[in-house]
Amino acid sequence: MSKIVLITGASSGMGRASAKLLSENGFTVYAASRDISKLLNLNRSRIIPIFLDITSQKSIDSVVKKIIEKDKKIDILINNAGYGVVSSVENFQEQEMFNQFNVNVFGILRVTKAVIPHMRKENYGVIINISSFLGKIGLPLFTLYNASKYAVEGITDSLRYELSTFNIRVHSILPGFFDTEFARKNLVTNMETLDANSAYSKLVSQLVPKIMEQINGGNNADDVAKLILKIINDEKFTARTTVGDKAKKFIPMRRELSDEDFERRVKEYYGI
Question: Where do runs of H (alpha helix) occur along the chain?
């Protein structure tokens, strides 16, 4: 019997690539997004586009109910939906702060909460949280995004203990910079921070163009999809893993150096 997968944020980038690869490997994939029109051209019988707003528990519960009614189970949950706010802490608005956590953190908790009872009933499940290498290291102007991804790492660690007795595996993937629509459509910029007269204008001019260049010239989303498939198929896979050049560069460096030495290396690397 085909394993049932639910992927959030599946209309583009890593989510779309994962939906395609998993469907090609015999999985039935519910590709969830707030814009399912982008999924209709996939034309694959094993991909089922479904509207989902992860900021609404009502929307989540409705989607989970539909899947259970049709397929009786959800074997794999891939928490992929997310975006980033670019702002100094001094300038961010209350709503920007709330929205960042509402999607990147509370959204994961809502969807996972809804899926766990069905995995527990089957005594089987795999939950994969798409985090970021910025969930282990900080960068200026990305404080809200950093903090949200640090939270994802905490959720992953705690859930691994909480769900292990029910044969539910929990993993996180920490991608580096990838050539997806993230920089073009999933970064929200605080205009006060980016203003030419901002106290942070020098930092913005030094850092942001380099980050955008690295994202737009980053690794291919298919690399993440292949890693997801590998995690699903390997019951002994590690709790978390990196993927992409920047993640493989910075995460080991972060482990090896003191906080001060690591900060110095990052400042030198980005010229800030």
Answer: 13-24, 57-71, 94-101, 107-122, 143-163, 182-185, 191-194, 201-216, 221-233, 245-256, 259-270
The residues spanned by each domain of the chain are 4-270
> What would the two tokens of residue 231 be?
């995690």
| Long-range Cβ contacts of 55-61 (<8 Å, 24+ apart) | 55/102, 55/103, 55/106, 55/107, 55/110, 57/110, 57/114, 60/110, 60/111, 60/114, 61/114
**Per the structure block, which two tokens stand in for 268?**
């030198």
pLDDT tens sequence across 176-214 = 887 666 555 667 899 999 999 999 999 999 999 898 888
**Interatomic CA distance for residues 123 and 111, integer angstroms:** 18
The CB density around residue 205, as the number of other CB atoms within 10 Å, is 12
Q: CATH number for the 4-270 domain, one of 3.30.710.10, 3.40.50.720, 3.40.50.1820, 1.10.10.10?
A: 3.40.50.720
- What is the reported pTM? 0.94
Active site residues per annotation: 11, 131, 145, 149
